[in-house]
Design brief:
Layout: H1 13-52, H2 55-153, H3 160-181
Helix pairs in contact: 2-3
Amino acid sequence: MAPISVHYWPVSMDDDLNQERKGCKLRWWLWILTVLVVLILVGLTISFAVKANRKACKDGLQAEQECLNYTHLLEHQLTQANEVLQRTKIQADTCNQTVVTLTASLKMETAQGHKQQELVQKLQGEVAELKQKLQDTFDELQRLRKKTETSDTGNGSTSFGNTVNFFLVSVLLTLSLGALLA
């Protein structure tokens, strides 16, 4: 067999020792640095705990809680106001619909009132005509009575037939006038 040649690079012994020493120093520095960071964190935690328990901080928390309570109260009042607003809107819509209905009814009543007014004027015209006819008839009756009286004066007494006739005409005219006015 052939000899195997192994070539080792020459390593100095001082390099190994220096590297070993550097590794130990580095570990010590890491430990010291870790301990310092832990001490700083513990100090900050203690400082924060002291500040958190101060009176001002407690008052701030109490004020924040009061603000939350007041906010909840305002939200509740806003909800109630919105409900009242919705009910009021519904009532307003109902009122508006009622106003529309009443306006339509008023227009119909006004139109009917105008018709009735026209009818009343027509009837008043007829009543005036009938009054005139009544007056004409009464004048005619007076003329006939005078004529009859003048013819009866010769006899010396008034006739019972004329009185009954006059009474009948008066009653009939009064009844016809009452029927027209009703």
